[in-house]
Amino acid sequence: MAEAYVYDGLRTPIGRHAGALAPVRADDLLGGVINELVTRNPFKPEAYEDAIVGCTNQAGEDARNVARHAALLAGLPTAIGGLTINRLWAAALPRSSMPRARRASGKASSSSPAASKA
User: Fold this and answer.
1) What is the distance between the alpha carbons of residues 85 and 118, in angstroms, rounded to a whole number?
2) What is the full per-residue pLDDT of the chain (118 aa) written as tens digits?
3) How far is CA 93 from the centre of its chain?
4) What range does the domain containing 91 cover?
5) What is the domain-level CATH number for residue 111?
6) Beta-strand runs (E) in 1-118
7) Which of 17, 23, 32, 111 has the most CB atoms lying inside 10 A of its own CB?
8) Is 59 exposed, middle or buried (0-12, 13-18, 19+ CB in 10 A)?
9) How far apart are CA 30 and CA 114, in angstroms?
10) pTM here?
């Protein structure tokens, strides 16, 4: 069975209702995080297979696949998929365990810069 590791992680800033981040779209904010992770790690963008992220507020224009949009905004190749998990307070739990399970089962050889990389 393949080993899987969380190589790096980074999160978006935490905002307040109607605060300074209110006019910033979620995918723009997350795209910057993904871009930073890709920049500070030695892996080529083509090495990632999925962008797997947790998003707790998918309403209005955020009611789409934020992970996919953010990965594209970060400049990752179009072949990379995106998975947005909405579990409200527990969004980080499946986001961090799913990549490990996929690698261990042989379903994936790499994970997303927003979740993990081995």
Assistant:
1) 21
2) 566 556 788 888 888 889 999 898 888 999 999 999 999 988 899 988 888 888 877 777 666 889 999 999 999 999 998 888 876 656 556 656 667 777 777 766 665 555 433 3
3) 13
4) 1-118
5) 3.40.47.10
6) 50-54, 81-85
7) 111
8) exposed
9) 9
10) 0.69
Tokens of 93: 């739990």
46-57 residue pLDDT tens: 988 888 888 877
Tally of domains in the chain: 1
Residues ≥6 apart with Cβ < 8 Å to 74: 31, 32, 34, 35, 38, 113
Question: Taking Cα atoms as reference points, which of 99, 19, 20, 17 lies closest to residue 56?
Answer: 17
83 alpha carbon, distance to own chain's centre: 8
The C-alpha angle 71, 29, 58, rounded to 5 degrees, equals: 85
| CA atoms 41, 54, 84, 56: torsion sign | negative
Nearest CA-CA partner of 78 in 87, 86, 68: 68
User: Which pLDDT belongs to residue 61?
Assistant: 67
